[in-house]
Design a protein that fits this description.
heterodimer; A: mainly alpha; 3% strand; B: mainly alpha; Four Helix Bundle (Hemerythrin (Met), subunit A); 6 helices
Chain lengths: 297, 160
């Protein structure tokens, strides 16, 4: 009597045993693909790839008023990269600026912005980071002008960093989607907002341009102010910039903006979907316009 | 005719002769450059190329394919002037011209020639009424601008 039931059970278990790895593989592949997209939204994490060098292997110099910082190796290399870190430790480094050994990451790494990245996106990003080839490349020490820089980073974080309550899932549409991408993944404000003397963002000039950015670059005002910002740009022109790097007059962006748009071979802003680029455009058109001229007229 | 009248006519004619080629196209300049300063004049020229590029793109979006001919011709004309506006050492603390311009002079001149060639071809394509090809050729023009910028122009930096 129970033979048919047993036979059925054996069949079901057998099918699962054969099919489960493929199901797992498919789920993991989807997660890595999603992580690659999050990576692209973050500008290809371009600060961690030196020109002409292996992806994520570190070494790119970033000149700031506090000295020159060098992007670290975030490949799965067990010695110099993140190969020995747990998923939680990688996530904490991204969102909280804390390494597994308790040391604090420099705020040149925009962890204040990333602290609002959703759990889902961080999980996917971690999966993707683990999937790129490991590169055995030692990290280059920063050339910081501050004395006792390790202590300085810790004090700065204690004084000025308040983690954002990150959502479990990111908004999926509308201006909220644009605000999320702009503020917590693409981290636009980190370059396009001027800094105070303490290195924090001057939020009274949120997105209104920075005359003294990384690598001494002047980053433009991207609020919808007509005279000094992008008030005359259409949403389509903002989308076009994000996807091609061309301005409305078909001049092209250069420097760090070109880097994050073109990205590294694994991805950059240019890989944003049209819907996401439009969401960012709509968000930028919705922020308060601020008259703030940076650079030459 | 009185001597002052002859002088006035000559002055007006000379001014028109100088302004005429500039005002002849639809990318109207915002101001006149100091012709003796290559840095200022080439900044003006590049701005005018940009004005024409924007106008060109607006026309493409509006489906006015034949109308881009005049903008393409203006860009081609400006492109022929580019090398002359970069005499050796014509740079400054605020100039975005890279040293590579003079270190790779032949390559720089070739970039300007590429822009001229692509813009000339765009004018021909627009005049021929080949609407499908106009957009594709316009991308080549903008790509020529980018190619030169990437190789020979610095990103905007803060002033020292």
């Amino acid at each position: 009597m129970w033979y048919p039931v047993l036979f059925l059970l054996i069949m079901i278990v057998g099918m699962i045993a054969v099919g489960w790895p493929r199901l797992l593989w498919a789920a993991e592949s989807d997660l890595i693909a999603r992580g690659r997209y999050v990576f692209a939204l973050a500008g290809g994490c371009g600060c961690h790839t030196a020109k002409g060098e292996s992806v994520n292997a570190g070494g790119r110099p970033l000149k700031t008023p506090y000295g020159t910082f060098y992007g670290t190796n975030i490949t799965p290399d067990p010695t110099y990269g993140i190969g020995q870190w747990t998923d939680r430790q990688i996530g904490d480094s991204i969102r909280l600026g804390v390494r597994p050994d308790g040391s604090i990451v420099s705020p040149v790494m925009p962890y204040p912005a990333f602290s609002g990245m959703s759990d889902e996106d961080v999980t996917a990003l971690v999966a993707y980071l683990r999937s790129v080839p490991a590169v055995t490349r030692a990290n280059q020490p920063h050339e910081i002008s501050l004395p006792f820089s390790g202590v300085a980073m810790r004090v700065w974080r204690w004084l000025f960093f308040e983690p954002i309550a990150a959502p479990a899932r990111a908004p999926t549409e509308g201006i909220e989607r644009g605000r999320y991408i702009s503020g917590h993944v693409a981290h636009c404000q980190e370059c396009h907002t001027p800094r105070t003397r303490f290195g924090t963002l001057d939020l009274s000039l949120h997105l209104a341009g920075n005359p003294a950015g990384i690598d001494d670059e002047v980053t433009p005002n991207i609020t919808p102010e007509v005279k000094t910002g992008i008030g005359e740009w259409s949403e389509d022109e903002i989308v076009s910039l994000l996807q091609t790097g061309f301005l409305p007059n078909f001049d092209n962006v250069q420097g760090l903006m070109a880097l994050v748009i073109e990205g590294i071979p694994e991805g950059g802003y240019k890989d944003m979907t049209k819907d996401d680029a439009l969401a960012v455009a709509r968000y930028l058109k919705s922020v308060p316009p601020i008259e703030h001229r940076v650079g030459k007229e | 005719m009185r001597r002052t009248s002859y002088f006035a006519v000559a002055l007006i004619a000379g001014g028109l002769g100088y302004l005429g080629p500039i005002l002849a196209h639809e990318g109207h300049p915002k101001h006149l450059p100091d012709g003796k300063d290559p840095i200022a004049f080439r900044a003006y020229l590049m701005e005018n190329i940009g004005d024409n590029a924007k106008e060109l793109n607006d026309k493409l979006k509006a489906g006015q394919f034949a109308a881009v001919k005049v903008n393409a011709q203006a860009i081609a004309l400006h492109a022929t002037r580019i090398p002359d506006l970069f005499p050796q050492g014509s740079t400054s603390e605020t100039s975005k011209a890279k040293e590579e311009i003079w270190q790779k002079w032949d390559e720089f001149v070739k970039s300007a020639e590429t822009l001229r060639s692509e813009a000339d071809q765009l004018a021909v394509t627009a005049a021929d009424g080949k609407t499908d090809a106009v957009g594709a050729q316009a991308k080549k023009v903008f790509g020529a601008c980018k190619g030169c910028h990437d190789g020979f122009r610095k990103p905007e930096k803060q002033e020292a």
